[in-house]
Amino acid sequence: MSGQERGSAHAGPDTALAAYVLRLGDDALVASHRLAELAARGPQLEEDVALANTALDLLGQARSLLTYAGSLEERLTGVLRTEDDLAFLRGEDQFANCLLVELPNTDFAHTVARQLLFSAYQFELYSRLAGSADATLAGIAGKAVKEVAYHRDHAAGWTVRLGDGTEESSERMAAALEAAWPSTAELFASDPVFAAVAAAGLGADPPELRPAWEACVDGVLAEAGLARPEVPPVTGPAGRGGRQGVHTEAFGYLLAEMQHLHRSHPGALW
Amino acid sequence: MTDRGTATAAPENAPEQRRFEERIAADERIEPRDWMPDDYRRTLIRQIAQHAHSEIIGMQPEGNWITRAPSLRRKAVLIAKVQDEAGHGLYLYSAAETLGVAREELLDLLHQGRQRYSSIFNYPTVSWADVGAIGWLVDGAAITNQVPLCRCSYGPYARAMVRICKEESFHQRQGFDLLYTLARGTEAQRRMAQDSVDRWYWPSLMMFGPPDSESTHSEKSMAWNIKRFSNDELRQRFVDMIVPQAEALGLTLPDPDLAWNAERGHYDFGTPDWDEFMQVLKGNGPCNKQRIEHRRDAHREGAWVREAARAHAAKSRARSRTAAA
Ligand SMILES: [Fe+2]
Ligand SMILES: [Fe+2]
Question: B234, B144 in Cβ contact below 8 A?
Answer without folding.
Answer: yes
